[in-house]
Amino acid sequence: MIRRDYYDVLGVARDAADGEIKKAYRKIALECHPDRHPDSPDAEKKFKEASEAYQVLSDPEKRRVYDAYGHEGLKGQGFTGFSNFEDIFASMGGIFEEFFNFGGGGRRRNGPHRGADLRYDMEIDFEEAVFGAEKTIEVSQYVPCARCQGTMMEPGTSAVTCPSCNGRGEVRRSQGFFTLTTTCPHCRGAGRVVQHPCRECSGKGKVLQTTEVKVIVPAGVEDGNQLRLSGRGEPGGNNGPTGDLYIFLHVRRHEFFQRRGNDLVAELPISFCQAALGATIEAPTLDGPVNVKIPRGTQAGQTIRVPGKGVPHMRGYGRGDLHFVVNLEVPRHLTKEQEDLLRQFAVCEDGAKPAKSKAKKKESWIEKIKALALD
């Protein structure tokens, strides 16, 4: 399925501010909300499309990825859009409350809903980013309470129908041609009231627990990349699916190598004699030392390429290259013998230069003044 550009969907410019994006989405959501058009496939499509666009463009990280890589980039980050209204209202119910003071209806609120996603910021070494690694992290997350199995009630007890909303989970009021709904303040949308809360979780149905999670860092990742661990987030409500865990990678700098895409760059210090006469020297790489050939007459700043010693391609085969930038080192201290040899070289170098034609001696400014005085 071909997806439209999110900026076109909302009718905003690519540099639109957050306020413009929010205003544009509010207008479309109001016009196409399913409570207003219950039997219109076209309105349903526009509402889903606009909700998906707003979900991406209102999130700074998702928007950055989308601007750089489009829809395919979002797929790589684990975002595939909304498949139905349940997904939309589970993810964005709060924005509807803010916009219009209504939600998706009691049926949706009381049904299964997806758990929240979690974020973990992980620092890795430069070599781990290049070659990949297996890491173990500790993540604090809520898990279903073992005592009440997530029911929020003491074992052997049951909940009663909320007397305020008669089990609907919402209260309704009419305003023009809309039926506006708000969450029932008594049962908070559950439709039921727990009279005997579980003493283990205090009626929350879940407890905070720290667990160890193994993370496979693929070879070739970059600073700022994200890894998505499906189903390792918060548990869903009413038997809904578990959220995901997103690992944000922060790569430490290397003392010698710098990264340029899939290539590596480093300075290679060589002597004057090695540059002039050529040489084969041992140079470091992330795989270990290799022999690098220095051509005769190499100049400072010249680049020497070592193929296949860069960063592995994440979504392909092979590796980038390593580029050494020649840094000509001038000795600070010379022995007497070295100095004599260099002076001989300097004499030979001057002798090899073509003789300059004798130019007419320029008259000094003092001589010019004297001549004027005599006149």
Major sheet details: 4 strands, mixed
What is the 3D form? elongated
**Strand count:** 15
What is the typical, i.e. mean, pLDDT? 82
CATH fold group of the domain at 1-101: Helix Hairpins
N- to C-terminal distance: 96 Å
CATH superfamily of the domain at 1-101: DnaJ domain
Which class of the domain at 1-101 in CATH terms? Mainly Alpha
- The poorly predicted ranges are 101-109
Percentage of residues in strands: 15-25%
Q: How would you sum up this structure, described in words?
A:
The chain has 375 residues and is of the alpha+beta class. Among the domains are: 1-101, Orthogonal Bundle (Helix Hairpins); 258-352, HSP40/DNAj peptide-binding domain (Sandwich). The protein contains 10 helices and 15 strands. It has helices at residues 6-10, 18-32, 41-57, 60-76, 85-100, 106-110, 126-131, 272-277, 336-352, 365-374, and strands spanning 118-124, 133-144, 160-161, 170-175, 178-183, 192-193, 206-217, 226-229, 245-251, 258-260, 263-271, 279-283, 290-294, 303-306, 322-329. The chain has a 4-stranded mixed beta sheet. The chain has a 3-stranded mixed beta sheet with strand order 1-9-8. A two-stranded antiparallel ribbon has the order 2-7. A hairpin with a 6-residue loop joins strand 12 (279-283) and strand 13 (290-294). Helix 2 runs antiparallel to helix 3 (41-57). It is elongated. The N and C termini lie far apart (96 Å). Mean pLDDT is 82; it is low at 101-109.
